[in-house]
Amino acid sequence: ATPTAVMVATGKGASLGVLIKGGNALQNAHKIKTIVFDKTGTLTVGKPAVVSFQLFCVISEEDFCGMTIAAEINSEHPIAKAVVEHARLLRQKHGFENNQLTEVKDFKVHPGAGVSGKIGEKAILVGNRRLMQMFNVPIGGEVDTYVSENEHLARTCVLVAVEEIIAGGFAVTDPVKPEASLVISYLRSMHISSVMVTGDNWATATAIGSQVGIDRVFAETDPLGKADKIKELQLQGASVAMVGDGINDSPALVAADVGMAIGAGTDVAIEAADIVLMKSNLEDVVTAIDLSRKTMSRIR
Ligand code: ADP
Ligand code: MG
């Protein structure tokens, strides 16, 4: 495209809340055949909330909530924030919100899995099934049923283990964005296929995927795994775009032919992307491609 055409399209994009960082992004976007979407915060609203909670062993709700808060308060993950908020509400409900919280020692973040630490002499783990497997915590039948049932309802489960015994769990929901399924079907009409990659588990990812009508789902992928998925799709011959919001999406945003960041996302993702969707609305994925198609057809 000529510098003038790029300038016009970039200006038009900016006025629509689609920030295009340079001519390459604009020239590549019209060739996109596959779009890979991150799940949390991209296809979903990204504001998880706890909808249920259950104890699996003899432990007081006070101890359970206190330990969960002590561990998760140190985590930046949105799921951790939802769990802390819910545990706080439970403490309030029972009138022990003013009781002293214990501090966690040896706190550690396990990306894509959860957190670990020690409260007094007790080892505590808060996270998903994978975290429990990493620490050889057995998942009994009752826990397994609770987790599976919730995952099939598109919820993510957070398990809390104390001394290698699962004490309880929370089910978290993060609703899909209202425009998600319409955008995906519109993309299909443009002969663009949609794929989801997420660090979350397969059951939850598949359930969310069918809610939005996505073509393919890849779950339990770490940040580099997301980038590998992009490269794999490129090797199959497609020009690939990635849409994401998290730090864990940045390698994939860089690997993609066009990386698009959700405006409400992390600075790291915004920096890694070629295009920023300032309104955080998925319809602007189509806006960006349209702008590129129009610019490129005017040139040829
Ligand atoms: P995504 O790719 O969907 O943005 P992440 O890679 O950040 O997901 O996390 C994947 C999964 O790891 C989450 O769905 C959750 O089950 C688990 N997880 C990560 N951090 C935490 C935490 N602090 N507390 C509980 N669970 C966590
Ligand atoms: Mg995300």
From TrEMBL:
Domain of life of the native organism: Eukaryota
Cellular compartment(s): Membrane
Recorded family membership: Belongs to the cation transport ATPase (P-type) (TC 3.A.3) family. Type IB subfamily.
Protein name according to UniProt: P-type Cu(+) transporter
Organism for this UniProt entry: Salvia divinorum (Maria pastora)
Origin organism lineage: Eukaryota, Viridiplantae, Streptophyta, Embryophyta, Tracheophyta
Entire-sequence positions represented here: 597 to 896 of 976
